[in-house]
């Protein structure tokens, strides 16, 4: 069994979380994201599909988990899959995600304080970072899936018996191959592209990620010039994945990318597209701009150097910017509808 460092919190022996900059950097300074560990799907011979069986844990700042929270609401799975949010634990050592929004920091469904407790209950020898999204079996208290790559697709396909009437078809069969290919491309160039630049430990790794990211943004800007969404008239799973990165780009990720080549608002098609999506309630309800923008103040000696956001964040009306007209509907042959309903 692997050896771990621990910290005791409220009588709970909690393992210290590994750091990306230590465990996920290759010999050339490139960030190589850890593989997902709990990847078993749902259905016959796998995790059972049952109403009320699972608890989705996600975090406001984490776009990997944000897309699961959006899809859950789009499909009307609120009564089938319970949900809670975590944030980074504020302790001397990095203990990972904690249920900081709950009374005494205890999740009322699972009875745990840290997400890691559900991870190690599922696999006591797990050595990776404890990540969100995490889908936890409420009967066992164990994580059964943390596979952000496919989790929204499981919601869209395997949990269809629990979708609301008229739920959107986010993963239509005739487009699945194309959507999967788009999702892989988005992961490599956009979703993970930001982090490959952020965690790069060599100039070569940084500029490779930086240039790939902005080249991909140019491709997307061109793609959206004559169509409302990535696959035409209707929102699909791929749009959710692109949106969660765009929503964080100007107010969060630009801190990490270094020199900013272009802002989101410098791409007229992408900026209008992002606003078009934000104005859908499930997107708006699961987007926390002030949390994205909240800075970490830098202290030098006895002085705090505060950013613009630190001083004026409460005065910024993000909803006014993102709720502004976008003029994207004219690109659709069905301008009154952003979704194609599932076949019942």
Automatic annotation (TrEMBL):
Pfam families the record matches: GST_C_2, GST_N_2
SUPFAM superfamilies attached to this UniProt entry: GST C-terminal domain-like, Thioredoxin-like
GO cellular component, one term: cytoplasm
Highest rank taxon of the organism: Bacteria
GST C-terminal domain segment(s): 172-300
Entry GO MF terms: glutathione transferase activity
Protein name (record): GST C-terminal domain-containing protein
Native source species: Coprococcus comes
